[in-house]
Hints:
This protein has no helices and eleven strands. It has strands at residues 3-7, 10-12, 18-25, 30-39, 46-51, 57-59, 67-72, 77-82, 91-101, 104-109, 113-117.
Amino acid sequence: QVQLVESGGGLVQPGGSLRLSCAASGSIFSINSMAWYRQAPGKQRELVAHITSGGSTNYADSVKGRFTISRANAKGTVFLQMNNLKPEDTAVYYCYADLYAPIGPGVFWGQGTQVTVSS
């Protein structure tokens, strides 16, 4: 069974920082791209940041210059460094992985971690 487990969410004041982590586990041959999505109450899930196996990244316009995605390929781990957080960043953040497992290729999601930005 493939699992993605997120950690690092919490409550932070505006202007603060948080670092999210997501670790993939289970029987995995290779991981292609990984990403972070978020979903705020009453809104659709949206892409926050994406990183390929080669390290190419792209970001939502709303987080460019504030968030940084990175990954440790050998460990199947992806990180999201979030700086200068704003109240509008409040959401549940989900880890995503596009990978190849013994059962075949597939997309997997983590369970989500809550990020709340509030004074």
